[in-house]
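To: structure subgroup
Subject: Chain for Friday's discussion

All,

I'm putting the inputs and outputs inline so they're searchable in the archive.
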Amino acid sequence: MIQKTTQLNVVDKCGLWTVNVFHLYKGGFRQNSNSGDFVKVSVRKTRPTHWLLKKAKLRGILIHTCKEKQRKDGSLISFKVNTIVLLKKRMTPRGKEIVGSVSFGNKRKKFTKSFQTII
């Protein structure tokens, strides 16, 4: 589960390394978000020659959370780090490819070509 001021790692290859969450979508008084939800983030750590500066505001979708998630068949799935994919417009990722695995619950229509592996 992700709260405001949480540090997230970026898994798409767009030149950003770390971002900070400052807004959770789906309700004004929302306290936390799970994987598959949209969040608004600010840039904290970038590649030195990248054109996006710190404190730039972007939108993204959560991919992995450290909180265990139970599947329909009863098995548990958990990841070691909290990760995010940054978006340009609607559901198009900012980077050209996404590194790492993505759970089946996060798979969306326009994202299917971007994912390399699906657990």
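Points worth raising on Friday:
The longest strand covers residues 16-24.
The beta strands are 7-10, 16-24, 38-46, 57-64, 69-70, 76-77, 83-87, 101-102, 117-118.

D.
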